[in-house]
Structure formats: C-alpha cells, structure tokens
Here is the input.
Amino acid sequence: MEVSAHTAAALEEATRFDELGLAPPILAALTDLGYQTPTPIQKQAIPLVLAGRDLMAQAQTGTGKTAAFALPLLQKMLPHANTSASPARHPVRGLVLAPTRELALQVHEAIVTYKKNLPLRSTCVFGGVDMKPQELDLRGGVEILVATPGRLLDHAGSKVVHLSQVQFLVLDEADRMLDMGFLPDLKRILNLLPAQRQTLLFSATFDDSIVGLAKSFLQNPLKVEVARRNTAAETVEQVVHKVKEDDKMDALIHVVKAREITQALVFTRTKIAADKLGRRLQKRGIPTGIIHGDKAQIERLAALDGFKQGTVQLLAATDIAARGIDIVELPCVFNYELPYSPEDYVHRIGRTGRAGASGLAVSLVSHEEERLLGGIERFIKRDLTPAPLPEITVAAAPRAEVPAPAPTAAAAAPIQRSIRRREAPVCALLMPPAPRPPEPVAPEA
Ligand SMILES: Nc1ncnc2c1ncn2[C@@H]1O[C@H](COP(=O)(O)OP(=O)(O)OP(=O)(O)O)[C@@H](O)[C@H]1O
Ligand SMILES: [Mg+2]
Here is the structure.
C-alpha cells in the first residue's frame, strides 16, 4: 500500500482543484459549477486515482464522492477523446455501477456536467424504461457508461454493448453493490471485464465482510477514509422522539409544523407502508409524493422530480431513495420507521446536511423499534437520547432555530457552498432521444 512520493506530496499540499492534476477543460467546468475548493475526499482520492491505484474510499454522505471518482475518470479518458463518428472509436472504457436507477441517472448527470468541455461520450442505462433509446446510444459508442447492473447485463447479453475494453470500473455505494442482492449480477459483470483494469469502490459505509470480499477483485488497493468509519454526516442534527406506533402520523405533522419544515423525505421500511403513509398525508391536505420500487419508473422519476422542484412538501419513500440521492438543500429527513440495517440509517439521514449545509434528521421511534435504535447507536458510535416533541409556538420559530452542531475538523470540509440550483426535470429522459449535439473540439494535450 505504498504511495509514490509525487502522489504523497500532492495529497499533502493540494488545496485547490488546479493542484490536483486535472486538465483545464475540467477545471473550467468546475468553475462554472461554483466548486471552489476540493472536499477532503476529492483531495485524497483524485491524485491516487490519477496515479492508477485501486481504491476503497469512504467519506461521509454529501461530501462530494461523485466528483472524487468522476473527475479523475474523465482525466484518464482524455487521451481517448475523439470526435470520430465511428462507433468503433468509442468503446466503453469507463463503467460506473450504481444500485438504483435514480442514482445512476444522477451520477450520469454529474458526469455530463463535469465533461461538458470534453469530446467524450457517455450514457446511462437502467431498467424500467424502454431499451430502444439506450440501445441507440450504446450502438453509437460511448466512452463512459453509467448503469444499474440488471439492465447492463441485458444489453451485454444481446451484444449491444461490449465491455472488453473497460479500463476503469467504479462501484458507487460499493457496500450495497456487494451485498447479497447485487453480488450475483456483479460477478457476472466482472466476468465480462478485463482483469487488467483500475477499480474504485466508494461509499459512506463499509463493513468488514465487504472489505474482505472487495479485496478479491481489487489489485493492491489503497484504503482512503475521511473521518471515522460509518459515522453520519456531522452537519446533520439527529433527533429521536419516542412515539406510539398509532401516534406517529400526528407526531410527524406536529414536528413539521413546530419546526416549520418546508420539505422532508419520510422513510418507511416497506412499499406498503410508504403508500399508506403517502395517501394518509395527502388526505390530511399535505402535498405528498410517493416513491418505492413497485411504482412504474415514470412515476418514480416524476415523484422525485416533483420533490426536487419543490412541488410537493413531503416525499414518502422506501430505502430506494436512501442512497446517493442529492436533493438540493433538503432541510429534513424523517425516519417514520427505523430501518432494519444501521447502514441505511446513515444513508437515509445523509439526504440532508449535504455539501456543508445543515440538516435535521428526526426519528419517530416506537417501543417495538427500540432494539433497532440500539443497533444504530452502536453502529454510529453515538447515543441518540430521545427528546420530547417540540412545542408549537404562536409565532413559530424560524428554521434557523434548528442549529447544526459545529462541524468537526474532518467534516468542516472545505466544501464551499456552490451555487445550487433546482435541477432540470429528469422525466425528459423518458422522451425519445434528441439528436446528439455537436461535440466540442478536443482539448490540447
Ligand atoms: N468541491 C465541491 N464544492 C462545492 N460543491 C461540491 C463539491 N463537490 C461536490 N459538491 C456538491 O456536493 C453535493 C454532494 O455531492 P455527492 O452527491 O457527490 O456526495 P456523496 O459524497 O456522493 O454523498 P452520498 O454518500 O450521499 O452519495 C452535490 O450537490 C455536489 O454538486
Ligand atoms: Mg454519492
């Protein structure tokens, strides 16, 4: 696990993006985005990836892991950038796998933004939508492919995509990708890739069994850990209220009012519970969307989209919305039901308090859930002492009264608040593909 002197120096010294070895067209895209300084994980991971190392990288939710792998991936693809119309000149060289369709889409959108000045092609494939537009893109040739595993295997099976030239594999939410649900598909995909490649695992959580398993397909990997392992983002204030199961709905509405919460993701454990909760909230006159795995993909995207655009106040969700999803300045997450796995707790509450913003996570815990709460406390190595429900004051307190704890040095993340905008509707993805725009001219070497 040695680091070259050059890389070690870069690790210690780099405090600006232009010191990380990224090409000017990439730096220009970051400037346009309002990114001023690299986050700790970006500072640490980018030089190591550029040095060709396999990585297991862990950093808290919302601290810029996407750019930590996407930027060096683009840099490494640069020698292959070309404007040829021939599909053969655009084989898949970089493959990013994500566990949910919504996350794959989001990661691809980030890559598109970062690569806007580069003549590199990319696309995103995931299940639940028409295969045809995806096939068209894949047949045209792309250097970078973001995918969910099942749909990727469908395309690979019908020989629409060939993965024999992949040099660079990223597993986002790697611990999830390596759990029992995804492992068989992942193994099939690994069999299609060249053994000689660079592999990067990124997540906010890793447990020891995953570490062992991952080592079997990484080559001499380096472990990069920003902050203590499995800790929740420091920018999230965590609150627990003990509530009887039957009183949870009233408690939820009470906290929303008392804290003047403008928007919140509300997590349940099951699809049925998310549906039921969403419908009950709608009946109570609260604009609420619903997202879970039994919904049609168009409905899933529309629900997330409506929430991102601010057209609904609450989004009742299962854990499909727990990982990776980046909702601009989401103020609050509720655990209406605690998750069975403590990792999911960390990821759920990490939908708020992102990119240096403060956030609030409220868990409504019934007597039956106390054991789950204990498991979470042990996992995050922190006591979550229950507090009484907040009082509703006549002139309700402004949200500023929900202070974020002072960030610790590690999380004090020199993450600059970027100029954050509501994103464009993702439903556009379900439309027929627009003709490929003219590609920018290749940057100078
Ligand atoms: N250097 C930076 N400066 C400013 N904003 C940044 C920077 N890097 C990333 N961001 C923004 O921070 C937000 C969170 O980034 P990202 O989604 O990559 O987090 P993450 O670490 O992958 O979180 P999670 O563990 O939840 O997946 C995004 O909106 C991204 O645009
Ligand atoms: Mg992420």
